[in-house]
Amino acid sequence: MAQAGDGSWYAYFVAKDQASNAVVEGINFGINTTDTNAFTKSTDDVVYTGATEVVRQSKTLSDTETGFGLTFDKDTQWPAIQAFDFAVDGSVTITYSKGGNPQSIALTYLDDPDDYAGLTLDRDSYPPGADVHMTITSMSHNIDPTDEDSWTYETINGTAYYQYFDENGAPSRTTEGRINTDKLNFDDSGSFTIITDPNGKDVLEFTDTNRDQGDASNIGTNIVTILETQPNSGIFKTTDDADNSLIVIADGAQRGFTGTINFADDPISVPVRNYPGSLTMDVSGIGGTWNGGETINVTLDDGDLNLNSLVDQDIDITN
Q1: Of the candidates 222, 246, 78, the residue with the CA atom closest to the CA atom of residue 146
Q2: Percent of the chain, pLDDT > 90?
Q3: Taking every pair of C-alpha atoms in the chain, what is the biggest distance, in angstroms?
């Protein structure tokens, strides 16, 4: 562990085999160091240094560089990730021996990511032109515990790209960054596809938000980026800071047609619906006669005008 300027001690560790697979797939874990003077390690031990692409918001270490060996260089070797062999469903105990009063945290290393993955939508059906707010839960996609992770999918064939864009929508990689999630033990939780136009009728479309995806034409057309809601949450959304979604119902979508969003091999239908409307006038407070200049409350109930379930919308009505 290394001591940061805030006085706390920090360490980052990873399953050795999964980190090795991630490196092969193009996720940059830094440099696999052989510096035994900076780190206490044997020949078989693995320590990745300078892991700034998967620990993007590491704590700044104190000037004394307490925690590692004599040649440890915080400017080039921090953050460092220590890789270990973990037994599936086995216990991992982290102990801090503080003045004879050890403090321990017990963890369990799990190997069944599908049990912790799921997809939900903000409602059961949508009118034409409505935003489709999607929430994906997946700890497999949570690579960096210090920063919001971003995954971009070409949703026709399900090809995945890690950190193709950053949390602000700006290009984040100098290379394409295609990831084979099967190699990372994502199981079904690595799959994400969308059927936008069943029977040739447009139902779902993709749009820009204030977290613009930028130009991704070199990786496909039906591109969706999901962004983690906060560091280390494993919860990803298509919604930006202004409560607009990257996925919308086409303006001309016809009632009765259904798009499909398929995550973790568990498809969810997105049906188009037209809602009945009603208008009510509250006359209970005006007595027997409605006099000139006297106001009454009018309530309009029309689901077709509710185009964003996360936003209070205004409707202008003129005669």
Answers
A1: 78
A2: 52
A3: 93
- Spatial neighbors of 127 by CB under 8 A, at least 6 apart, are 249, 272, 273, 274, 275, 303, 304, 305, 306, 307
Pairing between strand 12-15 and 31-32? unpaired
Q: What are phi and psi of 74, to 5 degrees?
A: -65, -25
Q: Are 48 and 116 in contact (CB under 8 A)?
A: no
Are the C-beta atoms of residues 257 and 241 closer than 8 Å to each other? Answer: no
- Distance (Å, rounded) from C-alpha 300 to C-alpha 276? 11
In the numeric block, the tokens 């259904």 are attached to 258
Helix (H) or strand (E) holding 282: strand 277-282
Q: Quick one: pLDDT band at residue 81, thresholds 50, 70, 90?
A: very high
Does pLDDT of 212 surpass 60? no
Q: What is the chain's mean pLDDT, rounded?
A: 88
Residue from 187, 143, 148 nearest 23 by CA:
143
The pLDDT, as a whole number, for residue 251 is 95
